[in-house]
Amino acid sequence: MTKDHQSLPGYDYGTERVGHSPVTLEDLRELEETSGLTDEDRHYLALAGEVLSDQAEDMINAWRARIGAQAHLAKWFQGADGQPDERYKAAVKPRFVQWVIDTCTRPYDQAWLDYQEEIGLRHTPAKKNATDHVQALPLVPLRYLLAFTSVVVTTTREFLARKGHSPEEVERMHVAWRPKRCCSRWLCGAALTRKGICGETTALPFGASRATTADRPQLSPSSRCLAANKRRQ
Ligand code: HEM
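That is the input. Now the predicted structure with protoporphyrin IX containing FE docked in place:
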């Protein structure tokens, strides 16, 4: 079910190319408990993996359609010329498909923890664009990642219901999908907040949008990214 690293460029799960998450396994256990993930959820998550694995690409297409229809989201996949970068979109897509499968099938271990950090960083200037060698905007602000969680959680139900399972089984799979998926997003979000680049403020500080090279080192990482985003808007 999981493709090997050679056949999926940029998919670095479990490799030395992924850094070590600063979140510990103990933190993860506590997060798991906080989100209410139970042994029964693990069972239904495995079932969800069977149900979703051959629909994962359709799910990504549905989410991509939402992103593409909203200019304030689509711009993070645009090249320096302001046009959608189709090569970038095509390169990221199979890794996102793999994430759906991983969410259901991978154990909650160090490799999983490390890759959530990696995915978070790939939405920030620390790693965004680097995997596919593109020139898109450098930061997807945290608020959009968090807001999009609602789309990812709610739309998945429809896909879970497509394979003839009873309404109760669909509900149990959906309940199980939520905490695992949300833990993934919280950990990705934590990567952004640790870097101080949530992009949560909408107002730039004094002079940031017109910052000169000399000014830039005095700006916070968040301000620098917002300024970079602003220059390209
Ligand atoms: C619940 C919300 C989201 C989840 C779970 C998610 C997950 C992912 C995953 C798994 C990848 C592939 C990582 C890899 O290379 O292995 C990815 C990449 C990407 N996502 Fe998201 N994402 C979310 C929201 C968004 C939103 C709202 C945007 C805004 C357009 C976005 C833009 C991107 C971009 C531009 C990349 C490519 C990053 C790169 O250059 O490597 N994501 N995302």
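The chain has two domains: 23-199, 201-233.
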